[in-house]
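Incident log, entry 3
Record: HTH La-type RNA-binding domain-containing protein (525 residues)
Problem: checksum mismatch between cached and fresh output.
Input:
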Amino acid sequence: MATTTDPLLDQEDPQDGPEIRRQASHPLPQWSQTSLTSPQVEYYFSDENLPSDTHLLACCGGRDNLPVSISRICGFKKMRKYKKKVVVQALRKSTFLVVTEDGKQVSRKVALQGQCALDEGYFDDTEIAYDPRARVPAVLPVPLLPQEKKVYPVGMSKNMMKPTGFEKTYVEPPITPDEAKDEAAMYDPVKSFVERIEVAIQRFKKKRRMHEKYSHVFNKWMHFGGVETGPRMFGGLSRADMTNMDAEEIARATASHHVSWERNDTRFWTVDFVGVAEAFLSTYIAPQYSHNPEQVKSACQVLRSFYNYLLYHSVCPEFNDDLSRALYICDKAETELPQTYTAGLVLPGAFNTAASTIFGGSKAGLYTGDKEWAIRCKEEGVDLSELGVMDEEARITFRSGIAILGTDQQQDMLDTKAVKVLQDVSLCLCIDFIELPDELTREMYDRQNNFTTGKLKLEPLGKMVCRPWQVDDFSEYDLPLDKYPTGRPSDVEVDREFVFWVEESVLKECFLGMKLEASVLLVAE
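Fresh output:
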């Protein structure tokens, strides 16, 4: 008869192997070297200990005999002196226990029989030699303890998973009387705003876990708002140095953000929480993070958390109304910035792309799908939908839209040769109204798609009404107001209304008040 051997069992038994196995399984007594009055029996999985060991039962499930983490066992007081590697090697020699192949868990070879502390009535024993009040029964049902190590997201540690203070549900803790007294002195309205905000910034940072993603946004925001940010040079303080300092002195001594005293000059500087929030979110956060909604949410939460701190601690009560409006800006940006990015990906839509292709706009002459390299890429499954539109496909898309939504005059102009481009205008637009396609329009497009099944699928068109919008800047023009009411040159009338036909899926990504930079072709007969 052939026999097989387990290479794991052939390993040499460690020096402390018998002692480890005895503590982990067998109920053999061992007299303490420091006390001869009571024996210390070190056993865990034995029939004598396991039925009443609530903690170990919660690990193995009692009669279910679930594997128990060896790391957890190594954390027991009697087992801490042994290395895990030595424990695993010793337990593999046991005739009572079974170790998993990966060496991470251990269980009994024969499951526990009979009642245990997990069963109701286990402690209802009238023939006992001790006072029942000396033993507290388990609270049933006993939940099982996890035996596998908790897995954290990539790049995160256990400490990084703790609350940071930037959670949306975070609430500032109550202020003690001593803290209220200190803050009343630190944020006294008699002091200048520069003094108060500098102390508030440092105390805010001290009460938050500034992970890298929060610290980066906070420092950029402070610099954007006129607060100087930099390392503290030659300003190290020991605990002994700070013993006799009050809270305000400690905050100033440990500050890494400073506000120049020049900011007190109201002739050149003003406090504008709303303006800084709008400018920072639209010019820095939008280009950097708008493609990722979670990053936008984190960035907005940094601003929101600081504003709430200023309100809660009454740092600058004279600006409470501005802080409330700035909080509204953060809530608005959290939803609109990702939506603006998505809208930029889907605009101008298939219909306007087709019109640009036909009338020589920016999309004309871009189609390369008939090239040899493009054909090979298509065969390999590469998406080449952004390489322009075929002229034939563009004409079908454009003519279908005119036929379904156009007026009689526009339908008479379906011969595109009769249409002439008057002007190519680049301007900023603001969306005033969005009208989704009605049921009749959807029905007409369904009929049209029946004729182009498998070749071209057209989406029903809705309407997007826009008006010109000018970006405020510091440019100055010396122009007559009767000809230029806004005092600035413009290629189109300020009160002119533009109506664009756009696909329904694209319109759903837009919202009222959204600003666009567009190139518009003005055509006529």
